[in-house]
Amino acid sequence: MAQVLPAPPLVAAVAAVTAAPRRFLPVLPVLALVATLALPVPGDAGGGGGGGGTVADAVSGLVVLCCALRLVRGRRRPLTRTAAVVLAMPVVGVALATAGAASAGAGAAGLVRYLQIFVLVPAAVMLLVRDRRDARLIAWSLVTLALWQGAIGVHQYVTGTGASYQGEEIRAVGTFGPTDIMGMAAVVSFGLVCALGLALGSGPARHRAVAAACALALLLPLAVSFSRGAWIATAVTCGAQLALAGLRRAVQVFAVAAAAAVVLVGGLGVGTAMLQERMSSITQVAQAPDQSVTDRYTMWAAAVDMWRERPLTGVGLKGFPDHRDGHASLALSSGSDTDGAGAGFHRQPLLSPHNMYLLVLSEQGLLGLLALAGSWLALLVRGLRRLVRARRSPDGPDCALVACGMLLWQLVDFAYADIGGPSTVLTALVLGLAAWWALAPEGAGER
Known about the structure:
Elements: H1 9-23, H2 28-36, H3 55-74, H4 81-99, H5 104-128, H6 132-159, E1 163-165, E2 168-171, H7 181-199, H8 205-217, H9 219-223, H10 228-245, H11 247-267, H12 273-280, H13 291-309, H14 320-327, E3 336-340, E4 343-348, H15 356-390, H16 398-413, H17 425-439
Antiparallel strand pairs: 1-2, 3-4
Helix pairs in contact: 2-3, 2-6, 3-5, 4-5, 4-15, 5-17, 6-7, 7-8, 7-10, 7-16, 10-11, 10-16, 13-14, 13-15, 15-16, 15-17, 16-17
């Protein structure tokens, strides 16, 4: 019998390099989706509540198409029964709310948006991510995106070319512009959560050190985003990641973060009076709230009032703007002012309650909220169960900390924000990565 000789090292190396693109070919559409969020956003793309489509929306459709072609070509069953049920749960409330919409056009637009963000793109991402290597690649791409957007945001803060905040154009918004002021904050937060999860894993020491350095570097752009909701969600998520990773690592990372905070605030002078005032306002929203907080409380009350009027099915998709004035008090302002970051002054109407749970409750009723929130809760519970097992695995908990961490961040942030704007596709990506970790067949997510 002829003996098979091993390939020379050079030949083996060339084969490995040429095989790499093929190895990651299925996940390339997801990476393309992340890359589109680094592009400048047109000035009107996120205005008015984010009703217009963006390049990221188009690429998210490409992600779904590539997934469908892959499934047809592979002739395999796409989802397990549990995964199909969990991912399809939001369809129930959305379908009922579409039937109750004020107009067929509004209902159809809302239906497409909800299916895109909460069903189709998450399912496609889940199926395109095959193992830990794919998940880590996506996590590093999000860290890279966050560093890019964060660098632009810090430059805007330093040079006074950002969005307007208290009369000064210093608010860091990255390439998203003043009409989507939460865009850069969300991107930077996700990158920080991914970097921390990778740093807490059991990968090579060099990779973990780079991830930790990236997490520390992203603290500065997150601070100058002046986004209280992003601060709260990031603090809660990072605290949970540290607790799940173990007490010893939690103490070490806390010490490093405290030292970095001292350098940023004391040495570099990041702790400006405006930043300190913004931080202190988090605990003062009940005593002396500013107009933005007053508007938010007023819209929350209006959303609850809409739900009481139609408790089971709500006022219909896209119905909040039409019913807002009939349920809101006189304390509500006519809109919020946006200016700076390369855009002119614009009065942006308040078309949502800036709370995803109350938005769903008002437009889809109790049935819609239970279906949508139930799907998210199922992902979180199943993901945390696998995370506990992953801590004892030789592969480490890095992917689990990333997937569960980003999902937790999104669920906390939904208490202060809702969908809308160019950065919304990130929500679909987060849900897809969480679904891969929580719902993939046993062994598929453990490789």
